[in-house]
Specification:
mainly beta; Tachylectin-2, Chain A; Jelly Rolls; 2 domains; 6-stranded antiparallel beta sheet; 1 helix; 51% strand; disordered N terminus
C-alpha cells in the first residue's frame, strides 16, 4: 500500500521517500514548509548532545510574567515558522491548580523570550501539540478535567486561538499525553487507557477536525506492567516506511526517568507491528545534571539552512520543571563542517606587517550542526581528525588607496603570531574598482582542536570595506574523509 507523501507542520511528521540512494522529503504543495534536506538520510534522527550556546534550562517558571504564582513549565512542543522558533508548553498556575498554555520565541534556538499565556481556561490543560495542516495552525491539547482532547485553531498565529472542536471524548478510554500523526490517509491517535493506565490504545479517523475516532482492533497495542502509567512522551516522527513513537520511562523508583522509543513498521486499520528500538534512549545523563535525571518529553524543530535542527526536552530540577534545548549531533546529518557568512566590516590600517592581520568577523552560520564556530575568537574549531576542504571568498569595496591586499586562510592563529598559512591570495586593488573578489580553496589534513580563520592584511595604508551582502563573503569547511 502506498504511503501518503505529506509533511504535517513545521516539526516532525516528516514523510520521506528514497530516491537514487538519497532520502528526499516529498510535499503536496508549497503551503507545507519543506524541512531542509540536511534532515534527510538516516533513521537515527535522535542523536543529541547539549547545545553549547544554550544555558539550560532556557525556560522555567521564573520566566512567566503573566501568572502570579507559576510553579512549573513542561510538555514543550516546538515549531519553526518564518525564521522564528515557537515554543508551546504547559504552565502550572499554583493559585488555581490548572495548567495553562504558554508561548515563547527564539530567533537562534538558544536565546528564548517568554511571550504570554495563549490559552487560559477554568480547567487543567496539558500537552499542547502544535501542528500545521492545510495551511492552518492547530493545537491539540489534553483537557484532563474534562477527559477529552481539544482542538484549538489559530485565529492569529501564534497568540490568538479558539476552541473549534473535540477530537475525542471516548467514554473513559481517552487519557492524557497523546501521540497524534498522519499516515496512509488516516489520522492516528495513541493514548493511555484510562481504565488500565499501563495499556496504550490506538484510534484512527479520516479527519482531524471531527469526532468519530475508531478504536483499533489490536488495542492495546502495548502493555507495560510495572510502569504504573504508559504515557506518551512527545510528537511521533513519520518516515516513508515507519513511525517512531515515544513513551515515558517510568520504571524503578524514578518517575519520568527517561524516554523510550518504539518503531511502528506496519500500520493499517486492522493490523499493527511495532518493536522497542531503545529503552531510555533519553535519560538523565544527557541533561547536564540540571534535571536531576528526571526527563519525560521530547520534540524536534528542523529549522532551515540558516537555523539548526534542535530538540526541546523538559526536566525536573531544584525549583520545578524546566525546558532545555539540545542539538542533534553531526553524525546524524552525515556532515561535519560549517558555512559561515561575514558581517559588514571596515578595515583601516596604518602599518603593513603580518602581525597586523585582521580577522574577518562572521555573524550567520549555516550547517554548523556541531556548534563549532567560536564567535568570540572568530575561528572554526575542528571537531575531529580528518581531511577537510576549506573554501573562502572575500569581497572588498570602497578602498581609499591603490595597492595590494592579502587574504589568508590561517590555522591555529594569525601569521606572525604562530599561525600557519594554508592558502594565500594577493591582489592589487584600486580606488576606481567597484568591488574586488578573493577566492581561496585548500584541502588539508587537520586534527581535532585545530582552529581555522580568515585573515586580511593591506600592503597599503588605506581603508577597506568588507562586503557581506548577497553571501559575498563567507568561509565553507567540510570534512571529506
Amino acid at each position: 500500500m502506498s504511503k501518503s507523501t505529506i509533511n504535517i507542520g513545521e516539526t516532525g511528521f516528516v514523510v520521506r521517500t528514497k530516491i537514487n540512494d538519497n532520502f528526499t522529503e516529498l510535499y503536496p504543495n508549497e503551503k507545507d514548509y519543506p524541512c531542509s534536506p540536511r534532515q534527510a538520510g538516516r533513521d537515527s534522527i535522535l542523536s543529541f548532545k547539549p547545545y553549547k550556546r544554550a544555558n539550560n534550562p532556557v525556560l522555567s517558571a521564573t520566566d512567566i510574567t503573566d501568572i502570579d504564582n507559576p510553579s512549573t513549565v513542561a510538555d514543550p512542543f516546538i515549531v519553526f515558522e518564518n525564521g522564528i522558533y515557537h515554543l508551546f508548553f504547559e504552565v502550572m498556575d499554583t493559585d488555581t491548580g490548572y495548567g495553562q498554555v504558554g508561548h515563547a520565541t527564539s530567533y537562534d534556538g538558544f536565546n528564548w523570550t517568554y511571550d504570554q499565556i495563549i490559552i487560559d481556561t477554568a480547567y487543567h490543560k496539558s500537552y499542547p501539540c502544535c501542528l500545521k495542516w492545510n495551511n492552518i495552525w492547530y493545537i491539540v491539547l489534553a483537557a484532563d478535567d474534562e477527559r477529552r482532547l481539544e482542538l484549538w485553531e489559530a485565529t492569529t498565529f501564534p497568540t490568538i486561538w479558539s476552541l473549534v472542536g473535540v477530537l475525542s471524548s471516548v467514554d473513559e478510554t481517552i487519557q492524557n499525553d497523546h501521540s497524534l500523526f498522519y499516515w496512509d490517509e488516516y489520522w492516528w491517535l495513541i493514548t493511555q487507557d484510562q481504565g488500565n493506565e499501563e495499556d496504550s490504545l490506538l484510534f484512527y479517523n479520516t479527519e482531524l477536525t471531527t469526532d468519530g475516532w475508531v478504536l483499533h482492533p489490536s488495542s492495546p497495542i502495548l502493555t507495560k506492567p510495572g510502569y504504573g502509567e504508559l504515557r506518551g512522551s512527545g510528537r511521533p516522527i513519520v518516515y516513508e516506511d515507519s513511525i517512531n513513537i515515544f513513551y515515558q520511562n517510568r520504571t524503578g523508583d524514578v518517575c519520568c526517568g527517561g524516554v523510550d522509543m518504539y518503531k511502528i513498521t506496519e500500520l493499517t486499520t486492522t493490523s499493527i507491528s511495532l518493536y522497542e528500538v531503545k529503552n531510555k534512549f533519553l535519560n538523565g545523563s544527557l541533561s547536564e545534571q540540571w534535571t536531576n535525571g528526571i526527563i519525560h518529553h521530547i520534540d524536534i524543530a528542523f529549522g532551515d539552512a540558516s537555523h539548526p535542527a534542535i530538540a526541546v526536552m523538559d526536566g525536573q530540577y531544584t525549583t520545578g520543571w524546566g525546558i532545555g534545548i539540545y542539538i542533534q549531533s553531526a553524525d546524524h546529518f552525515g556532515f561535519v563542517g560549517a558555512r559561515i557568512e561575514a558581517v559588514a566590516q571596515n578595515i583601516s590600517q596604518t602599518t603593513h606587517t603580518k602581525i597586523d592581520m585582521t580577522n574577518v568577523y562572521y555573524a550567520a552560520r549555516r550547517y554548523d550542526y556541531g556548534d563549532n564556530y567560536d564567535n568570540t575568537n572568530n575561528y572554526y574549531v575542528i571537531p575531529e581528525n580528518g581531511i577537510y576542504l576549506i573554501h573562502a571568498q572575500l569581497c572588498f569595496d570602497q578602498t581609499t588607496a591603490n595597492g595590494e591586499a592579502q587574504v589568508t586562510i590561517c590555522k591555529n592563529g594569525t601569521l606572525g603570531s604562530g599561525g600557519i598559512s594554508l592558502a594565500t591570495k594577493v591582489k592589487y586593488i584600486t580606488t576606481d574598482s567597484t568591488q574586488s573578489m578573493f577566492s581561496l580553496s585548500e584541502q588539508r589534513e587537520l586534527s581535532e582542536g585545530d582552529t581555522i580563520e580568515l585573515d586580511v592584511i593591506q600592503w597599503i595604508q588605506a581603508s577597506l570595506a568588507i562586503v557581506s551582502s548577497n553571501n559575498s563573503t563567507f568561509m565553507f569547511i567540510r570534512k571529506l574523509t
